[in-house]
Amino acid sequence: MHNPSATLLIIDDDEVVRARLAAHLQAKGFRVLQASNGMQGMQAFKDAQPDLLICDLRMPQLDGLELIRQLNAQGSETPVILLSGAATMSDVVEALRLGASDYLLKPLDDLAVLEHSVRRALDEAALRQENRRYREKLEATNRELQASLSLLEEDQNAGRQVQLNMLPQSPWHTDDLLFEHQIIPSLYLSGDFVDYFRLDQHRVAFYLADVSGHGASSAFVTVLLKFMTTRLLYESRRNGLLPAFKPSEVLGHINRGLLNCKLGKHVTMLGGVIDQLSNQLTYSIGGHLPLPVLYSQGSARFLEGRGLPIGLFEHAVHEDYVMDLPDSFSLTMLSDGIFDLLPGESLKDKEASLPQLVSAAGGTLNGLRDALELTTLGDMPDDIALLVLSRNLA
Q1: Which tens digit of pLDDT belongs to each residue from 249-266?
Q2: Collapsing DSSP states into helix, strand and coil, what is residue 49?
Q3: Which residue, 18, 195, 331, 369, is most buried by CB atoms nearer than 10 A?
């Protein structure tokens, strides 16, 4: 998680010890600066702003504990590892009270212990920074939600702008995955919503939701969905450990949230997580039709799945489905408003035509736009949402 080429500052008045530590850590890929006493160390810290300090406890002029005190007074969150050859319990307690990341005893016969302490401290610092960013994002989302509620009551135009601003970037590339979406509201505001975002370095999450009804009241629920998923992501990361983040559990969380709000609205929804390390998709269905359509090697098929809608049943249980992904594929997700554009007399006939349509469109959003003539649509009886994620399509 941490920067493998992080800058370290070693402060020690013993030149032999300092050189030995620096040589080992440089060999492990770190950039290492050195200072021979606390005063020089403070100046080097101001000049270079290193990512971590390794500091001897006993030094002339400015010892390790006083150095930490001065860093704390400056508001610094840079981790500090203290070294000492003559530690007392009171020194250890005071160092940890002041916020030292670790306290190691000299002589360091096994420098792997120091390296492990450095990497752990850098990881913890990176997690603190990431949590702060998510906290700021959550606070910003809270402010946006409060503003959105007022604006939706006062001005439909402002409400539409807020909803558009909540939608993710389209197209969005993350590593070898491409996400694209389009939402066509039946009224000025839409009850359909999509979102996708990175969970961590190797997992990406997405969902498509279709809120019952139309207009401002349904659009409000999409704002609430955005808030609940953002808050859930923040809460999951708060302790620095992101759990499995199973789609079925996310649907359950949203189900409870909607029931508690007592808005009289329910949602059909599908969501998934792609693990790029295992190349697996885990997804869950919340009463949503049509099912996602997987396109690969020139053919398309529905994914399996079923589940109860969100916001209707207190004890609804949702299931996770897991599948290996092809090297080249697209996954097309649509709200049920798409049935108004499909050929066929019955809903069953319309649904049956969808894989063939996705296949003819080459599994792409642009192909679907052309096939369904979305650019020339007039007023529609229902909102329409399209979300296509793909990888390595020719």
Answers
A1: 899 989 998 889 888 888
A2: coil
A3: 331
